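*** Residues and shapes ***
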Amino acid sequence: MSDPRLSVISRRLEGVGRLLAVTSGKGGVGKTVVATCMALGLRDQGFKVGLLDLDFTSPTTHILLGVEGLYPEEEYGIIPPLAHGLRYMSVTHYSLDEPVPLRGVDVSNSLIELLCITRWGELDFLVVDMPPGIGDATLDVVRLIPRLEFLLVSTPSLLAFSSVRRLIRLLKEMGCSMLGLVENMATGGGSPIKKEVEELGLPYLGSIGFDPGLEEAVGDVGRLAETHLYGEVLELARRLASASP
């Protein structure tokens, strides 16, 4: 018997124009930073934007945004609270900073429950900070959320890109829409990643330079907006917003 909650998910997202999934084949490449700055950058262009943190094992968007004590409003489901002008949803609304030790079917059930009870309303963009890696959680998100457009993140490391390459091939096999790949923490010089990406038939969207000032801006959105990294992600957000879905 099919899960009746699955039919609700599409209805919850029907008011969302575009769904941008920021993903990578592994953790530690700055996926969450790119996702958070992407959401803020789209907001700064006047769009109505939501940010959904689906990294159940180690959610950190709330740390970057410097928000705490936020709780969704309950009304025929849950309405994500506003955080710096973003409709923001994360498991940390309920778990705080405690670990969420979910396994197997519990991960799927938690994702389904979160997606079917969250009322996003009318948004131009919903940015999804994807679970890291290529495990059950990632596969479930691809299965459960329609219309996802994937933005992949890698570092200049060929070791890191080896994991991203596997994810690219998986998303291709699943028929997913991929916007391209951005190279994070670039240090200048020729990029070995660009050639690898283009050989896979995926757009290389450019590089984001390593920003030593980022750490001091964590938790302060005003200071984050003054970083070089934010400026580069903002330019990427402008390009993606103007592109046809």
